[in-house]
Predict the 3D structure of the following.
Amino acid sequence: MLNVPSQSFPGPSSQQRVSSGGRSKVPLKQGRSLMDWIRLTKSGKDLTGLKGRLIEVTEEELKKHNKKDDCWICIRGFVYNVSPYMEYHPGGEEELMSAAGSDGTDLFDQVHRWVNYESMLKECLVGRMAVKPAFPKVIHSRFQNEKCHGHSLVSHLPFSLLCTDADYHEEKRLLNGMLPKSQVTDPLAKEGPSSPSYDWFQTDALVTIVIYTKQKDINLDSVIADHQDDSFRAETVIKDYSYLIHIALSHEIQEDFSVRVVENVGKIEIVLKKKENTSWKCLGHPLENHNSLIPKKDTGTEIVKPYTPVSDSLFSEFKEPVLPNNKYIYFLIKIYPAGLFTPELDHLQIGDYVSVSNPEGNFKISQFQDLEDLFLLAAGTGFTPMVKVLSYALTNIPSLRKVKLMFFNKTEDDIIWRSQLEKLAFKDKRFDLEFVLSVPTSEWNGKRGYISPALLSEFLKRSLDTSKVLICICGPMPFTEQGMKLLHDLNFSKDEIHSFTA
């Protein structure tokens, strides 16, 4: 979505810039909300006018599409037909039309750089720009120097080309477009991946650090983030290298923060919550190895990951753990080949050691007291805390009438413990099970898509109008955040919802 909340302004020292007058939203017609746009993109309607084809777009072709009902815009080398989006854009049609038939990357970066337009406009993708070969006469890397409390923070921007005036327009077009692979020269290609870059912006309550990895195989398990006192550290594994953000923050933040990965573009967003709603002049000052790309063999990082102990089977009778007599703790862990932690865990041998902390978390058994309806919403490995919840509820809650699990995954192969879940649903008539796939095969007859008001309103039906209800939700941070918002929109109270977060 090509908009940013009106209160969202980048930090004064950030790369982001906004006009001095700010930016206002415009009133949208009824039926033109964000959720309406998402529904339209999921409807299967052809939003590009090309019937699913992707094309290479020349500058001459791009210029032809400059009208409201035929508006193409190029952003970072990719061309989108934004005509269907005109009435849904909170910034108004005029703002989109200012880039009609042209490269709108600079305009976009002035206002929207942090917005996940790749996801919002993916159904509007026409293709990529066809770029003529051209080579810069002078090449420099550009950086920004931020002063903070007497320290200097050097924050490398995405690589840019600086040229003589005569070559400026041609080079600018190359920067915002995409060079054919044969013309891309990467000085680190022989030694390792291209060095990532990062940026930050802020609102009244939040600070977001954005890491541009320039890789497409990054996932949440590739990122380890940690906050201690005023020090913030985020390590990202990229192939055999480790990219580090290591900063002494200029202001205090709350303990909880979230990490989100846009896998198809390799963008990582880390959202920090300010302790005080004040404007930060800078992010902080750099600590050891900040903004560096180091071979993994040269790093000695201590890695900590939270995992939820599970029962050895869904059919095991639930018993409260008695630690002195227990010999085993069971975990359900998905191995990510490119991950930072799980490959090392996978290679452990019998006799090796790992350190285990004391139990953490805020789930209280008292939430089950007199419970009648239990609804579980899980996505991917967010299923793990549901194992003990299921076992305990079905074994120990006599008032329980119904337990329902809605389990979201990409494909059928991703469904954890499918056979055990199906056997449990057959064995215990109180338990109902629904699988939802976002990338199903044509043979899939179950539900499809993502968490949505339509799915939840149908799923969350009480056995009686007055039933005492508990809803548990766990999954990747975007799933949990969206789910919590939808549950509140459906008028469930805070006391009826528990979210499991790392």
